[in-house]
Amino acid sequence: MAFSLLAPKPVGAVGQSGGVRSILGTIVRYTVLVIAAILFLLPYYLILRNGLSSEKDITSPDWTFFPSSIHWENITELFTDPSVPMAGAMLNSALIAVVQTFGQLLLGSMAGYGLARIPYKHANKIFYAVLVTLMIPSAVTFVPSFVLVSSLGWVSDLRGLIIPGLFSGFVAFLFRQFFLNFPIELEDAARVDGLSYWGTFWRIVFPNSLQFYAAIAVITFIAAWNSFLWPLVIGQDPSSWTVQVALSTFITAQTINLHEVFLGAAVSILPLVLVFLFLQRYLVEGVAQTGIKG
């Protein structure tokens, strides 16, 4: 039998020490979370504060938390500015983001399912070819893509903005990896019942993969909405500007329109904030399933 030379601690003292430690840990966690929340919300405050201020309040050396007066008329000025078609730019961005998201989900999932499940002697070669395209920097293919789109007459046209982004090798790669882990017993049962590969994909695999589709849709929509360089080069006419291109025109070598820049930024991020608020669960799950790390 072993004996301890140390006197045992009273049961009440141990419980009190653990309770104090737990309270301190909770206080530290909440303090860190509050600081993180303030840092996260600070850019939104600056955007709204400056967007509804006058140029004098924005550039004044005497900073105030709230502007001297809130200029709601800046909203009307933003959407009636004859030099920048903000409303049309937002519609173009919404159309491009929605169509590209739908196209990448449809084509990427079909390509990924074919590479993962349909036996074909050249399947691995095609998969490696897709991987090679992911390793090529986009700057290398930028000029050839522009020459091709220009030869088709799609400059300053929505076709030139939408069609090149309808397929993504990265999305196809993610879907292939996801379908490799899909329960093959369900597909075998479907084929025993007489379904073809298309019927199995459409009736069995797709309904049971909606969460992954939603996650990829959120990621694709955000990427398409925030795209800037390709729309800047292709959208040379104001009627084909996207919201990111429209924002860039508020700051030029000759003029700087600060309050419209900030207010335009607030309006442009509103769809993304709504998408994130309603689909953040799918976004987190999708990042976890795809292995994407920021």
Explain the overall architecture.
With 294 residues, this protein is an all-alpha fold. 71% of the residues lie in helices and 0% in strands. The chain is built from 14 helices and no strands. Helix 1 packs across helix 14 and helix 5 crosses helix 8. The longest helix is centred in the first third of the chain and has 41 residues. The protein is flat. The mean pLDDT is 86.
Largest beta-sheet details = none
The rounded Rg comes to 27 Å
The number of helical segments is 14
Mean pLDDT: 86
User: Quick one: how many beta strands?
Assistant: 0
- Stretches where pLDDT is under 50 for at least 5 consecutive residues are none
Structural class: mainly alpha
Report the portion of residues in β strands. under 5%
Shape: flat
Oligomer: single chain
SSE pattern, N- to C-terminal: HHHHHHHHHHHHHH
Task: Give the fraction of residues assigned to helices.
Answer: over 70%
First-last Cα distance: 56 Å
Question: What are the salient characteristics of this protein?
Answer:
flat, mainly alpha, 294 residues, 14 helices
Write the layout of secondary structure elements.
Elements: H1 11-51, H2 55-59, H3 73-80, H4 86-117, H5 123-135, H6 138-151, H7 158-162, H8 169-180, H9 184-192, H10 197-205, H11 210-226, H12 229-234, H13 243-248, H14 258-290
In a few lines, what is going on in this structure?
The protein has helices spanning 11-51, 55-59, 73-80, 86-117, 123-135, 138-151, 158-162, 169-180, 184-192, 197-205, 210-226, 229-234, 243-248, 258-290.
